[in-house]
Amino acid sequence: MTFLFGKIAWAVVQPGNLLLLCLLAGVIFFLASRGRRGRILVGLAALGFLLLAVAPIGPAMLLVLEQRLPRPAALPERIDGILVLGGAVEPALSLSYGETVFNSAVARVLAGIALARRYPEAKLALIGGEGAFVPVGLAESRATLGFVIEQGIVPERVILEERSRSTHENAVYAKELIRPAPGTAWILITSAYHMPRAVAAFDAVAWPVVPYPVDYKIDPQTGLRANFNLLDGLGATTLAGKEWAGLLGYRLMGWARQLFPAPAEVKARSAR
Asked: Of the four, 56, 87, 185, 242, which is 20 to 30 A from 216 by CA?
């Protein structure tokens, strides 16, 4: 129920849809001969779209997330396992075309494979069921397995977690499945903007991990320049807004012990 509520709530309040609803409400007021209210709502919607197109609101929000938990200067000499969070595969398209269809987050999987080669004794855990509102019958981890094997990773090293639908469930079900022993070292791979929420979720289930962010979206040198591009601005704001809303929601739900995990604390826990 919580999963469905979150999906529906975000569909309503995400920036593009919220501005569109504001615009539609303004038009309705115009048609109902309430011109003043209509002008206000249409004006607010227009201003919102203009700000998204010109001001680097979304990129700034993303950059804070991406730079919060950097990779460690040096990885541990011994790694027991590598956790690759889902979100890089399109299950519906994979079923339709009979092959693994990746999206822009494919760096998660590629980094997992690279680290699995670097640490040949480590397990490679593919984490993720079906996070779509309408399931299609194929877990993301299952859809990724064939590609991973094609890259030379033997099936015996791979762990599949196929139940989770959210970052919170990623942590809960992965721990239930893997049952990591105290003192073992596990690397967590996900997109950089998603890393704070992912680390918070794993910390909440008492599983300290080593963050290994990939899939960076914003160049810290040039990414905050004004740019008249509504699609880019809307996309970045939507992506960042979902993460910030997720961080707040997880804290309120008790699924995270911290609102915004601090690098020093994460490093200290993973070193224990």
From this structure: 185
pLDDT tens digit sequence for 180-195: 999 999 999 999 999 9
What is the pTM assigned to this prediction? 0.92
Do 220 and 63 meet the contact criterion of CB atoms below 8 Å apart?
yes
Collapsed DSSP state (helix, strand, coil) of residue 57: helix
Q: How many residues does the chain have?
A: 272
> How would you label 219-229 residue by residue, b for 16+ Cβ within 10 Å and e otherwise?
eeeebeeeeee
Beta strand segments in 86-214, E = 123-127, 158-161, 186-191, 210-214
141: domain range? 72-215+260-270
Is 12 part of a structural domain of the chain? yes
Contact 223, 59 (CB under 8 A): yes
For residues 124 and 157, is the Cβ–Cβ distance under 8 A? yes
Query: What CATH number is associated with residue 172?
Result: 3.40.50.620
Instruction: Write out pLDDT tens, residues 68-105.
Output: 999 999 999 999 999 999 999 999 999 999 999 999 99
Calpha distance 195→188 (Å, rounded): 9
Question: Distance between CA atoms of 29 and 22, rounded to whole angstroms?
Answer: 11
Enter the tokens of residue 7. 């999906």
Are 17 and 146 in a shared domain?
no
Measure the CA angle with vertex 82, ends 81 and 85; round to 5°: 140
